[in-house]
Design goal:
- The structure is a single chain.
- The chain is of the alpha+beta class.
- The chain has 3 domains: 114 residues, Butyryl-Coa Dehydrogenase, subunit A, domain 1 (Orthogonal Bundle), CATH 1.10.540.10; 111 residues, Butyryl-CoA Dehydrogenase, subunit A, domain 2, CATH 2.40.110.10; 145 residues, Butyryl-CoA Dehydrogenase, subunit A, domain 3 (Up-down Bundle), CATH 1.20.140.
- The protein is built from 11 helices and 10 strands.
- It has a 4-stranded mixed beta sheet. Strands 2-3-7-6 form a 4-stranded antiparallel beta sheet, with helices on one face. A two-stranded antiparallel ribbon has the order 9-10.
- The longest helix is centred in the first third of the chain and has 29 residues.
- It is globular and about 80 Å long.
Length: 392
Amino acid sequence: MTLPQFERAPRHTDPQEEEALLDAIERWLEKEVRPVCMKLEHDDTYPQKLVEDMKAMGLFGAVLDPKWGGLGLSALTYARIVTKISTVWMSLTGIFNSHLMMASLIEKYGTDEQRERFLPRMATGELRGGVGLTEPDAGTDLQGIRMRAVKAGDHYVVNGTKTWISNGIEGNCFAVLVKTNADTKPPRAGMSMFIMEKGPGFTVSRKLEKLGYKGIDSGELVFNDFHVPANNLIADEGDGFYAAVGGLELGRINVAARGVGIAKAALDASVQYSQMRKTFGKPICEHQAIQLKLGEMATRYEAARLLVENAAQAYDAGRRCDMEAGMAKYFASEAGLENATEAMRIHGAYGYSKEYPIERLYRDAPLLCIGEGTNEMQRIIIARQLVARNPA
């Protein structure tokens, strides 16, 4: 492996700056997002106005260095932003997370020329995109991808399909994992990653319909003799798998923070509803069965929050944190799913109604157990890192 060992400088956000930013986001959520998100979600309408708002707030450059026009936020502050937004509408966090995963890959492993060419436009949201890893026959097993890129002079010719690509329709620039040498053993050694902007030979074949998470577009991307310049190669040929894996740490912290947001939203709604709803002459919060649920929900939320903060702090310290990010992603996503399920039980028929946000939490939460690597895979990663860090 020739991938450069990128060293993340320790990063810390000034507490006053963080508080001001979180307050501004809270006001925006209450004024602009909460009043419209239910209708946008149920109509499956892309939130263009809200995306423009997020551009103006600098969220598309949240964790990028200020020299590229980013906010330079710590992962801890970023996670808190994601959690706060997810308590109102999780879909919005995916729009800038997928984008930032790509931007962070370029910032970590790209050339100086690539950083100067792409990052300032990505920080403003002029260029928006994501990471193209999944294919119809390859998801968690990235070594099973089939998309090919063949060198032809000063460019590569790309053929294949990527699916379930976040921002695939509305975005215009993607970091795409391909095979440049199909015969290499192990297969990961023959994989490379390119920055690909939409153009001739690069089309979106369809919009994918989903159970939830409808505020962000998920598309299938088709490449038919698409020409990508050789200078759009991230790192060296054959380093794509390692770049992709390295870029998942921040993505998993984001997904974990979304789980915390859903867990909190479900808990808060349940506490409030249980004090208003009465059965057998008293509020249901006074029934032991409901109290048991609320106690478990509160504990899951708090434990998930602390795991996310631990992973984010490790990332900010510049340490390898795939185990911490995997723990946070696994536990927090399950906490979000379990709290959403319990919230529906507490709300009864109202939890099943589109008049309340509980049904949306219930539809959004399962995605977190799948996205950025399944939770089954997270447990394997955790175990392997545990053994590696504690040799006999």
